[in-house]
Amino acid sequence: MMILQTAADLREVVDWSRAQFAMTAIYHFLFVPLTLGLSFLCAFMHTQYYRTGQEFWKKTTRFWMNIFGINFAIGVATGLILEFEFGTNWSNYSYFVGDIFGAPLAIEGILAFFLEATFVAVMFFGWDRVKKGFHLTATWMTALGANLSALWILVANSWMQYPVGMTFNVETARNEMTDFWEVLLSPVAINKFTHTVLSGFVLGAVFVLGVSAWYLLKNREKEFACTSIRIASIFGLISAILLILTGDRSNRVIARVQPMKLAAVEGLYEGGHGADMVVVGVLKPAERMEPGEDPFYFGLRIPKLLSLLSFHDPNAYVPGINDLIRGDQAHGLMPAQEKIRRGQIARAEIGRYHIARKAGDQVGM
Questions:
Q1: pLDDT at position 299, please?
Q2: Which of 24, 39, 80, 126 is the most exposed, having the fewest neighbouring CB atoms within 10 Å of its CB?
Q3: How many Å apart are CA 285 and CA 289, to the nearest integer?
């Protein structure tokens, strides 16, 4: 058995763990968003078949349903691997926050995944085998289950971004959930879910539009193509409008609870009031920048737009990367070194607590 003896060995294992998880997540997210939108488009078309009984709607629904099934299968396979990788690659993290992080993932598996896994079989193989009403219900339940799965997974991810509804247990050195509803309904979770799902809806609409347009260009299946374009256009337009609204809200939430993420995304090293937004630019490597130097080789800036989008105030203060690292007392920003120092103190005190507890020293505890 290989024994890790140096810090370099440990870093190599961590890097490989990150690479494996990233590769799986990339493949997972290439296919899953498409299923979110395509599932509802299939349900809309299936509803038309149920209402009219026309063979045209049956053929149209089955065509898009087959494409949905391919993406669904790959999404399930990669999603299961991701679930296992939390334990194999990040076992210490899973122990540390498993009481909270594991709850939404367990609900996703027991409720949402079992829901769609049960009804997806009826959806695909139930043609002319079950009653039309039950078959239609199975299609809608599959679409609902797919999007419910996204909800619980994004709730878990949102808690990682913005941990709420929990307390730290000194005895076990673990975070434990104290308020399930605060975890579920945190502003990051709600906005992440609505924005991500609506993105999937837009993707599904664009995909249907693209395939249908190809049929028109080839002068094939014109009725099928035109009908699919009409449904996808309406669905995509409504989703795109709502997507803009949720995107605006998501940006404002991130500006308040994750300012470093916003600064990194925008390449904002030095913040301030009335922060500009770089629409197009080429960022310099950090090691090539001098203090106070423009971090971009060139950039197209829109004055005060970042402050406006982040706080709906063109003169609002937006901290940059350097402001968050060195701290800004005037705006209540603690230096990163001070955060590290406090963390080191807390870790040392936890160690002292456990030594005193083991020795039965009540005063020390």
A1: 83
A2: 80
A3: 7
